[in-house]
Design brief:
The protein has 8 helices and 13 strands. A 6-stranded antiparallel beta sheet has the order 4-3-6-1-2-5. A 5-stranded parallel beta sheet has the order 9-8-7-10-13. The chain has about 300 residues and is α/β, with parallel strands linked by helices. It has helices at about 5-15, 120-125, 165-175, 200-205, 230-235, 240-245, 260-265, 285-290; strands spanning about 20-30, 30-40, 50-55, 75-80, 105-110, 135, 155-160, 185-190, 210-215, 250-260, 265-270, 275, 305-310. It folds into 2 domains: about 5-135, Beta Barrel (Elongation Factor Tu (Ef-tu), domain 3); about 155-310, Rossmann fold (3-Layer(aba) Sandwich). Helix content is about 20%, strand content about 25%. The protein is globular, with a radius of gyration of 20 Å. The longest helix is centred in the middle third of the chain and has 12 residues, at about 165-175.
């Protein structure tokens, strides 16, 4: 698992690693749900925020994976990850605050199609087991939260792949606080096996009728339904038909996380405020044409579309 002498590696691990894996689930080889218990008290934070995870460049990637050569093999490799959250236990009961202990992360092995390399950190994270040590940041931050929402607002969470990680935490928190409005989560993935939280959402919906979870797949295609993307679901009104509401900008907050192509954040001319949307169109364009307004921090605009791009 490591490079260099055993003595050097153990010293580096002791210096940099400050957390332990307490739980690990592998829906398939490229996907993992991991709970991490730090050696320090978990800082106060809000659902939707992120922290860092890290392993040393001295750790070997999983067999069969290649990564770029490290300029400094003794350096700590860190990346930011949104914090996820388990929703319900096996009986469908909502987890109480602080249980299970630690923080949950939802990770996918990154593969670069052009270079053939795997992600530097994820290629190493997939080698870990329960009880292994790693680095976790002592600071939790981020502006992607439900702070602006009112208890009766419709909450629409749209994600691709592991972009649903912060949404899991937000939704758990909304249900815990007795949110009265509709809570709708849509997750688009390539294959049904990539829906690692599908079963837990089914248990959540069974006991909380205001929660709806709509999975979309782009490669496991149902012969009865054409391939659909999240943008399509909104554009033709199918989302509204399936959950039984109209998306009213005055009482709806939308959260977008994952593939930037799905989100579709426009470029804005600072002087004229004219927006240029990307092609193909993303959710921002579809919803802004219906009266929604996206957050634009650089222009100090706070809207009802909030987004977190994953690359």
């Amino acid at each position: 698992m490591s490079q260099g002498s055993s003595h050097d590696v153990e010293a580096l691990r002791a210096k940099h690693y400050n957390a332990t894996i307490s739980y690990l689930e592998r829906p398939h080889d490229d996907l993992m749900i991991m709970r991490v218990v730090p050696d320090f008290p978990i800082p106060d934070h809000k659902p939707g925020q992120y922290t860092t995870l890290g392993l040393g460049y001295w750790e070997k990637p999983a067999p069969g994976l290649t990564v770029p050569a490290a300029a400094d093999p003794l350096r700590l490799l860190r990346r930011s990850y949104s914090i996820s959250h388990p929703l319900v236990d096996a009986q469908g009961e909502l987890y109480p605050p602080g249980q299970p202990p630690g923080l949950e992360f939802y990770l996918v092995l990154v593969r670069n199609a052009s270079s053939g390399h795997a992600g530097e950190l994820t290629a190493r994270l997939v080698t870990l087991k329960v009880g292994d040590r790693l680095h976790m940041g002592e600071r939790i931050t981020g502006h992607y939260t439900t702070a602006a929402a009112r208890p009766t607002d419709t909450m629409l969470f749209l994600s691709t792949g592991t972009g649903e990680a912060p949404h899991n935490y937000m939704i758990w928190d909304l249900v815990r606080r007795g949110h009265q409005g509709l809570i709708v989560a849509v997750c688009c993935v390539r294959y049904r096996r990539d829906l690692a939280y599908l079963a837990t959402y089914q248990r959540l919906m069974a006991k909380h009728p205001n929660v709806h979870y709509l999975p979309l797949t782009t490669r496991d295609i149902d012969p009865q339904q054409p391939k659909r993307y999240i943008q399509d679901l909104i554009s033709d009104g199918e989302l509204e038909r399936r959950v039984g509401i109209q998306l009213d900008p005055s009482q709806t907050h939308v959260y977008l996380c994952g593939n930037p192509a799905m989100i579709g954040v426009p470029l804005i001319d600072r002087a004229t405020r004219v927006k240029t949307y990307p092609t193909p169109r993303g959710v921002c364009e579809v919803l802004e044409q219906r009266g929604f307004v996206a957050d634009y921090a650089s222009l100090k605009i706070k809207g009802n579309i909030h987004f977190e791009e994953y690359w």
